[in-house]
Every structure is written in structure tokens, then in C-alpha cells.
Amino acid sequence: MLKITPVPILADNYTWLISPPQGRNAVVVDPGDSAPVARALESLGLTLSAIIVTHHHGDHVAGVAELVDNGTPVYGPRDSNIPNLTNPVSAGETMAPAGLETRFDVIAVPGHTLDHLAYFGGGALFAGDALFAGGCGRMFEGKPEQMQAYLAQLRTLPGETRLYCGHEYTLANLEFAVAVEPDNQALQQRLENVRQQRAKGVITLPSTLAEECDTNPFLRWDSDAVKRQAEARAGQQLDTPAEVFAVLRQWKDNF
């Protein structure tokens, strides 16, 4: 199994270090700040072998230029304004980042940004800001139909898939989720667990997709309880999953 280490950066971001069970290589996901990543690599005795980027926002790419040496491959969305991008990839492709013996499926997840990609391999999903523990990213560039469609695709991945996302937003996301679905007992228990973790300063990631499907309202558009709450919020019947998602996303933006 891959060893995956969080590196807290900036206010609430996570960069992820992926390394093989044996060996000293490390692939870095979304280095929004170079200094903490460089310190983590040194303290763990790891050598940077590649960088993976999910999307072009500065808090995910600002450290790329300072981390790369000549020849360090940088994987990321094709036709995107990402510094030092050497290995552009597109949805539907697979890639094997330098230094790992693991292949990753490249999945399009447009909405937060139109160029956003997620990477699935080794039992892990690196989702950037497309899917959070308990929530999903704000819709800056895409449309509700696009976001709901990719969430439906992610929902089909194995339930044991570990979710590694870009921010420590879990507590706020679950507080919103409880407002949407107050009678969900699994959600109530998860919220209590997360409150205890955050009180101790403990990271809440990774979660699993099974847990997300049980407690994340943005993956539960076909739950009768979630749909009823969205319709009550909208004041009208909602006929499609995308319409339910759009109401939830707007509700969360103003929560």
C-alpha cells in the first residue's frame, strides 16, 4: 500500500506526499507552498521524484517552481496555466508518476475550475477541491450539471477508496450537512467524532467514499430526506439530480 503523508500548508490546505512502501522517492500533490514541503521531504528522508497538480489555483501550485529541479516531471491538466508543467494529462488517460509503481486514472471533475482533474490509484483518490470530506468545492467556473455529473462518477468508485482532498474543511462541511439531513444518525456520529478530532488539532483525513456516500449531502441528491430539504429550500419541486445539487451548493455558499 502507498504511504501517504499530509503536509499542512497555508491556512488550511494539505499537500500530500506519496511514497512507495519501500524506497525513498516521493510524489508531491498540490504543493501550494514550497518551504513546508521541502522540510517534510528532508525530515522523512525522501527525494522528490514528481509533482501532481489537480488545478491551477495558487494555493495548489505556488510552490511548484521552487521545488522542481531540471528534469522533475510535473503532471497536471492539459492546456492549463500551471507553472513548469511538463507532463500534461487529460481525462480518460492513465499515468504512472515517476518514482511510484502505481498507475492513476485521470478523472475530469469540472466545476470548482474547468481544468480540475482528480487522480485515482492505489486505493486512493486525490480530489483537490472537487470533493471534500463532508462537502465539495465552490462552483467558481463550472455549472451544476457538470459538478453533479462528476460527483456521480466518483460515487461509483469502490467504497473503501480513501479520499485525500485539499483542505481541512470537514467540520464546517458536516455542520452544514446536519442542517440538510438532521435525522441521519451516521452523520450525527461523524460530526461528533470530527468535533473531537479538531478540538485536539487532529487531521480529519482521509475519509472513505463509503463514508462520504453515507454522510455527504453532495453525494446524496437521491436521498428522499435530502431531496425534500432541497425542495423546501427552493420552494418548488426539483426534477433532476443537478437541480437538487444546485440548491444544495447555493445553500452551502450562504450557510
Neighbour order of strands in the largest sheet? 1-2-3-4-5-6
How would a textbook summarize the main sheet?
6 strands, mixed
User: What are the low-pLDDT stretches, counting only 5+ consecutive residues below 50?
Assistant: none
Mean pLDDT across the residues is 97
User: Which oligomeric state applies?
Assistant: single chain
- N-to-C series of helices and strands: EEEHEHHEEEEEEEEHEHHEHHH
Please outline what is shown here.
This protein has 255 residues and is of the alpha/beta class.
Give an overview of the whole structure.
A six-stranded mixed sheet has the order 1-2-3-4-5-6, with helices on one face. The model has no long low-confidence stretch (mean pLDDT 97). The chain is of the alpha/beta class. Strand 1 (3-9) and strand 2 (13-19) form a beta hairpin. The chain has nine helices and 14 strands. Helix 5 (170-180) runs antiparallel to helix 6. The protein is globular and about 55 Å long. The longest helix has 15 residues, at 185-199.
Task: Please specify the SSE layout and strand pairing.
Elements lengths: L2 E7 L3 E7 L5 E5 L4 H11 L2 E6 L5 H4 L2 H4 L6 E4 L9 E3 L4 E2 L8 E5 L8 E5 L2 E5 L2 E2 L2 E2 L7 H11 L7 E4 L4 H11 L4 H15 L7 E2 H7 L8 H11 L6 H13 L2
Relevant terms:
255 residues; alpha/beta; 14 strands
